[in-house]
Amino acid sequence: MREVSDDVPGTVRYEVADGVATITIDRPERRNALTWSIVGELRGAVDRARSDDGVRVVVLTGAGDRAFCAGADLDGMAGTATAELHRARGQLAGLFTDLWSLGRPTIAKVRGFCLAGGMGVALSCDLVVASDDATFGTPEIDVGLWPYMITVPLCRSMPPKRALELMMTGRRIDAAEAERIGFVNRVVAAGELDAAVADLAAVLASKSRSVMELGRDSFYATWDAAAADALGVLHPTLGLATGLEDAAEGLAAFRERRPPRWTDR
What we know:
Blueprint: E1 2-5, E2 12-17, E3 20-25, H1 36-51, E4 57-62, E5 67-69, H2 74-77, H3 83-100, E6 106-110, E7 113-115, H4 117-123, E8 127-131, E9 135-137, H5 151-155, H6 160-169, E10 172-174, H7 175-181, E11 186-188, H8 193-205, H9 209-222, H10 227-242, H11 245-256
Parallel strand pairs: 3-4, 4-6, 5-7, 6-8, 7-9, 8-11
Antiparallel strand pairs: 1-2, 2-3, 9-10
Helix pairs in contact: 1-3, 9-10
């Protein structure tokens, strides 16, 4: 069953089918370029997924076959420095945080251009699946800017010196190189992209939601932590996780050689 929601207005579409929420930047005539209002709409869509107990996986994508997101709409995001503009720029950081703290697996489905802020949005998802005609890059340097806000998702997704090279040169890379660097999980032919993402989403949706949420949250909580601090988080989380009903069910199913029956508790 598919639900199409009008609760998220404007240029972001929100659809739910089989436990998978698909959030689409729907501005193909502008290569799905971001404006401050679109970033706000994306945050609203992510919040809707968070509050929907029926959503087990979130897929983020762009409309059409030319771009996932070509970055900022420089006309729509320009302006004289003001307190209001400063707050608006914080929306992008808020979106990254929203995705990391969502509690559900997230997949960026990338076709065509994935540049600048769009690349930051894609790399803030847990996994990135790209078509073989995808192009990634941070070209801000070529227009006298710097990709400040996306530094964190870039450096969390590849070796920092690789990220720095891309930011300093503005060089664009294809999907094959992106996979070699390590920030793309899988590259498929353009005609296979929808099916590949659907298959991956179905696998993730089939897991225990409670186990997935605790595990995913612990990953993000310890990503940048020192070893001792990370272990201080992971040890008590392990104790909590082993008390879950689904942990007991998983072990019972393993012993009885049958598929587990998750209750998400």
